[in-house]
Specification:
Low-confidence stretches: none
Number of strands: 12
Helix content: 25-40%
Number of domains: 2
CATH architecture of the largest domain: 3-Layer(aba) Sandwich
CATH class of the largest domain: Alpha Beta
Distance between the termini: 43 Å
CATH topology of the largest domain: D-Maltodextrin-Binding Protein, domain 2
Shape: globular
Largest sheet: 8 strands, mixed
Mean pLDDT: 96
Length: about 350
């Protein structure tokens, strides 16, 4: 038997269950690296099991591997309705004057807040700075006063050299995005021809469920990062992690099931059937692609009909100057959750 808690209740349930000598839950598949680190791992409630073959497939050993066991990485990506004249070819376009992207609110889906935390990591802050550097002069002039204002703030928060660019992007994003309750409705809005010049940051796999009609089509949207001239971050990636509970009633069974999900294409198939979800085992990822052919997910009878559904794959998405996906790091998120998190809480969200 399994349970799927709603509204971020999984942490409360696991915490309560950990008080028993023998728990109810044998294992968990869980997201939100920040809370996993601070509430589950540091407290000893969850234990990472690293299968030997999984470690070897990633060029290491269970003993040498540091971190949790990810089942998969999912990507949330920028996409925009292309039925109008507007083009978004730089990640700063999404926070320019007058823009209001559709996005799940960061207080209802916490992985979205982790995305903002990760932007302050120097690696991703540098990506933002590099994208800023190639903006036209008039757009630079719009952003520069905010960047200047964020310089001292970045120092106070202990951020790196390019932290001011991250804080600027975060501030403008939080103060402008149009909060939604779920990615599904966002997708339904964007693929309709009536959504001219609108954009969103949503789970890539939502495109799988679009039903083509006269007014609705995947071809009404463009994946921003797939444009040849696009510059900057293409979205963010968050992970689903597998753990054994510290008081698991069936620890060996849990380990066997975890091995099945992470070592075999069949075990990963429930997640591997869609674009935008990538096994953390490169052998399983390759096997899944061979079986599902997601790189041609938009092909129909050998013809490229829906180009946006042609998934370029994990390696492309995470690469600099390609997808530039911002990847969640649980330890980093936990380390800035109080400092950067408190700063974000003071920002004023956009109110329609």
């Amino acid at each position: 038997e399994w349970q799927q808690p709603k509204s971020n209740k999984i942490f409360d349930q696991l915490s309560a269950d950990s008080l028993k000598e023998v728990g109810t839950f044998a294992m968990t598949l869980i997201q939100d690296g920040n809370q996993i680190e601070s509430k589950m791992v540091q407290t000893g409630i969850l234990r990472a099991f690293i299968p030997k073959e999984w470690a070897e497939a990633n060029g290491t050993t269970p003993e040498a591997y540091e971190g949790y066991l990810p089942l998969q990485t999912l990507n949330k990506i920028f996409m925009f309705n292309n039925t109008g004249e507007k083009v978004y070819d730089n990640c700063w376009d999404f926070v320019y004057e007058g823009e209001h992207g559709l996005f799940m609110d960061i207080d209802s889906e916490i992985v979205g807040k982790n995305f903002l935390y990760m932007l302050t990591h120097e690696k991703y802050a540098k990506w933002l700075k590099d994208a800023f550097d190639v903006l036209p002069a008039d757009e630079k002039a719009y952003f520069q006063p905010v960047i200047d204002a964020m310089e001292e703030e970045a120092k106070t928060l202990g951020l790196g050299e390019n932290g001011k660019y991250a804080l600027t992007w975060i501030k403008l994003w939080v103060e402008s995005y149009n909060a939604q309750t779920d990615d599904g409705p966002i997708c339904n809005i964007l693929v309709d021809q009536s959504a001219t010049d609108q954009f969103g940051l949503i789970v890539y796999s939502k495109l799988r469920s679009v039903e083509e009609t006269d007014s609705v089509s995947v071809n009404n949207i463009t994946v921003a990062a797939y444009q040849d001239n696009y510059v900057g971050i293409g979205g963010y990636g968050y992970r689903h992690y597998l753990f054994v509970t510290d008081n698991s009633p069936l620890p060996w069974t849990a380990c066997a099931f975890i091995a099945y999900m992470t070592l075999t294409v069949d075990g990963f198939s429930a997640w591997g059937k869609d674009i935008g979800g990538y096994s953390a085992n490169p052998l399983v990822a390759a096997g899944t692609e061979a079986e599902r052919n997601h790189s041609q997910g938009g092909y129909v009878d050998g013809v490229n009909v829906f180009d946006a559904k042609n998934d370029r794959g994990y390696d492309w998405w995470i690469a600099e100057d390609k997808g530039e996906l911002v990847i969640e790091d649980p330890e980093y998120c936990a380390s800035v959750a109080f400092t950067v998190g408190s700063w974000i809480e003071m920002l004023t969200k956009y109110n329609q």
